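Let us begin with a simple case.
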Amino acid sequence: GKSSKRLNKGSKKGGKKKVVDPFTKKDWYDVKAPSMFTSRQIGKTLVSRTVGTKIAADGLKGRVYEVSLADLQNDEIAFRKFRLQCEDVQGKNCLTNFHGMTMTTDKIRSMVKKRQTLIQ
């Protein structure tokens, strides 16, 4: 049928664009929690690889990660969320420091619900 003829036509549009997979220019770093937590490995983060004066570590520093307490302490109380800010990069490790604490919205809502009558 007709469909087989059209296969090559689409490539003419914008043929100058080279498709570069953005992930090839990025590196994975391990995000480490401060030592006060039992579980230090929070996760991984992507950062653009060091190119010239743009150093990967600088792109990581100052990033804030939000992690639930359950992930940090291996316990079930998950409504507390910690904000951890990346302060230092050693090798492929992102070292974070305590940056603040929030509660997840559903926990706050359940607290609010109890006092709903006051809010109206």
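The second case is a distinct protein. As before, the sequence precedes its structure tokens.
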Amino acid sequence: MAQTFDECVLSNDWECDAEGKEGFLLTKFFCGHDQICRQPSQMAVERAKENIRRHYAVVGVLEEFSSFLKVLEVVMPQFFRGAQDTWQDLNQQTNLLEDQRTINRSPPSPRIRKIMRERLKLDYQVYYFIRERFHMQKARLGIQD
């Protein structure tokens, strides 16, 4: 039986319980495998940010995927030359983005947004760091949306 995201969060189903085994994923990914990275903490967030600064030339955000490809074309042209054009052609030929949309999707209620922002507060810190860094990279490279 299909349920809304609100219902999933309120019933604490594992798929929607960011505090359970599926939570803290963004921070864990960038933090690494050290002991400090295994439990949600501000120290894990800071380690994740430091790892991003040191080890990743570019980290983009999905909602700006086209811009991400443009940045990659400039920063690593030997690998990504023409990536933006290829993406646009592929999307036009296949309706790729339309085919991936959720049917009958209803946005989360303000109450659920507040609950999830609290549950994901550490990941939000990492996300906002990534997004700000990405925007600064775009500006330095003269890339506009």
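The chain has a mean pLDDT of 89. Residues 121-141 form the longest helix (21 residues).
Keep these points in mind for the review questions at the end of the chapter.
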